[in-house]
Automatic annotation (TrEMBL):
The protein, known as: Proline iminopeptidase-family hydrolase
Leader sequence residues: 1-22
Coiled-coil zones: none
Family indicated by similarity: Belongs to the peptidase S33 family.
Keywords (A to Z) from UniProt: Hydrolase, Signal
SUPFAM superfamilies attached to this UniProt entry: alpha/beta-Hydrolases
PANTHER family on file: AB HYDROLASE SUPERFAMILY PROTEIN YCLE, MONOACYLGLYCEROL LIPASE
InterPro entries in the record: AB_hydrolase_1, AB_hydrolase_fold, AB_hydrolase_sf, Peptidase_S33, Pro_imino_pep
Listed GO MF terms: hydrolase activity
KW Transmembrane (keyword) present: no
Keyword Cytoplasm: no
AB hydrolase-1 domain: residues covered: 70-326
Length: 348
C-alpha cells in the first residue's frame, strides 16, 4: 500500500509539474513577438494604407502571440478609437487569444486626412483588407470583431472577403440603419420621461446639437441607460478618453449629430444589408444586449439569417456590454472562438 501511495504521489506530481511547465512554455510563447520591431514598440505597428488620395498610416497594436487565433478589433463611431476595447486585456491573454487593437484611418492614433471622399464603407472595407495583409492574418487564424459602426464594417468586409475569415463577430449592431432608427423612435424614445423627450426632440428639430442642454439631457436619461449602464462618475477612463479622442468630422458626416438614430443627411442613413446576410457562411457570433440602442430581437434574427450563426444575449448589458455585462459578454465571446478553433462550433 505504501509503494502504491508513493507511486500515485509521484505520478500526480509529475502530471502537475509537467502541466505547469507546459503552461509556462505557452506563456513565454504568447508573450513573445516574432517580429523584432514589435519587441521594440510593445506590439505597435503603423500600417501604410493606400487610398485614392495618397498613402496614410494606421495604428495597430498586437497583444499576445498565437498563430492559430488572431482577433482584429474594429471600433465604433465612426471616428472612435481602440481604447473602447481595453477590457479585452483582462480576458483574452489568460485564454491565450492574440488580439489586435486598430484605429481606423481618421481616428486619433492614426493619420487624420481632411477629405470627406475617404469616409465611405467601400474604402474602409479596402483598408481592413490592407491591414489584414500587412499583419499576415488568414483564413486559418483570422477572427474579425466589430462593434457598433465596427459591426457595419465587419459585415461589409465579410460580404466581400469572407474567404479570408475563420470567424466573424458582430457586436451591438443591426444590419439596417432604418431598423435602428425605427427602434430608437418606437421603443427607446417612449421610455423617456415625456417632458425630457419633448425637449430633446425640440433641440434636434432646431438642429441645436451644440447646445449644452442637449448632452445634459442625454447623459442621465439615455447614455447611462442604453450606452453604458453605470453612473457617469464611475465610467472607466478608457471611455472618457474615447469620447475625448472621437473625430467628430467623421462621426457627424457618416452617422449624424443625433443620438436617436442616424440623421437623414448622414451617409449611413439608408444603409441596409438585411437581404444579404444569408450569403455569409463563415461561423458567426451575433452579440446583443437587453438594454442596447440596437434591437436584441432583430440581432437574434440576424444570427439565424446567416448560414452558421450563434446568438449571445447580454441580459444586463447595453451598447458597450464589455463594460456593463462582462460576465456574459466575455465567456460567450471566448466560448465562440474556442469552439470554432477546436472544430466544435454549432450554430443556433
Amino acid at each position: 500500500m505504501k509503494n502504491f501511495s508513493k507511486s500515485l504521489f509521484l505520478l500526480v506530481s509529475f502530471i502537475f509539474f509537467s502541466s505547469v511547465y507546459s503552461q509556462e512554455i505557452d506563456l513565454k510563447s504568447y508573450l513573445s513577438y516574432d517580429d523584432p520591431q514589435l519587441k521594440l514598440t510593445g506590439g505597435v505597428k503603423m500600417v501604410p494604407v493606400e487610398t485614392p488620395i495618397g498613402i496614410f498610416n494606421v495604428f495597430t497594436q498586437q497583444v499576445g502571440n498565437n498563430p492559430k487565433v488572431r482577433v482584429l478589433l474594429l471600433h465604433g463611431g465612426p471616428g472612435a478609437t481602440h481604447e473602447l476595447y481595453e477590457p479585452f486585456m483582462s480576458y483574452f491573454p489568460k485564454e491565450g487569444i492574440e488580439f489586435i487593437y486598430y484605429d481606423q484611418l481618421g481616428s486619433y492614433y492614426s493619420d487624420q486626412p481632411d477629405d470627406k471622399s475617404l469616409w465611405t464603407i467601400e474604402r474602409f472595407v479596402d483598408e481592413v483588407e490592407q491591414v489584414r495583409k500587412a499583419l499576415g492574418l488568414n483564413k486559418d487564424n483570422f477572427y474579425l470583431f466589430g462593434q457598433s459602426w465596427g459591426g457595419v464594417l465587419a459585415m461589409e468586409y465579410a460580404l466581400k472577403y469572407q474567404d479570408n475569415l475563420k470567424g466573424l463577430i458582430i457586436s451591438n449592431m443591426v444590419a439596417s440603419a432604418p431598423e435602428y432608427n425605427k427602434y430608437a423612435k418606437e421603443v427607446l424614445g417612449p421610455q423617456l420621461d415625456p417632458e425630457v423627450l419633448a425637449e430633446i426632440q425640440e433641440l434636434e428639430k432646431n438642429k441645436d446639437f451644440e447646445n449644452p442642454r442637449y448632452m445634459e439631457l442625454l447623459i442621465p436619461n439615455h447614455y447611462t441607460k442604453h450606452i453604458l449602464r453605470m453612473p457617469v462618475e464611475k465610467w472607466p477612463n478608457s471611455i472618457d478618453r474615447t469620447f475625448e479622442h472621437l473625430n467628430p468630422e467623421i462621426y457627424v458626416y457618416m452617422q449624424g449629430p443625433s443620438e436617436f438614430g442616424i440623421t437623414p443627411e448622414a451617409t449611413l442613413a439608408n444603409w441596409d444589408i438585411s437581404d444579404k446576410l444569408k450569403t455569409i457562411k463563415v461561423p458567426s457570433l451575433v452579440i446583443g444586449a437587453k438594454y442596447d440602442t440596437m434591437d436584441p430581437e432583430y440581432m437574434e434574427w440576424m444570427s439565424r439569417e446567416v448560414k452558421n450563426g450563434r446568438f449571445l444575449l447580454c441580459p444586463e448589458g447595453s451598447h458597450l456590454s464589455q463594460y456593463d455585462d462582462p460576465e456574459h459578454f466575455f465567456p460567450g465571446l471566448i466560448g465562440f472562438i474556442k469552439d470554432v478553433n477546436n472544430g466544435d462550433f454549432q450554430k443556433n
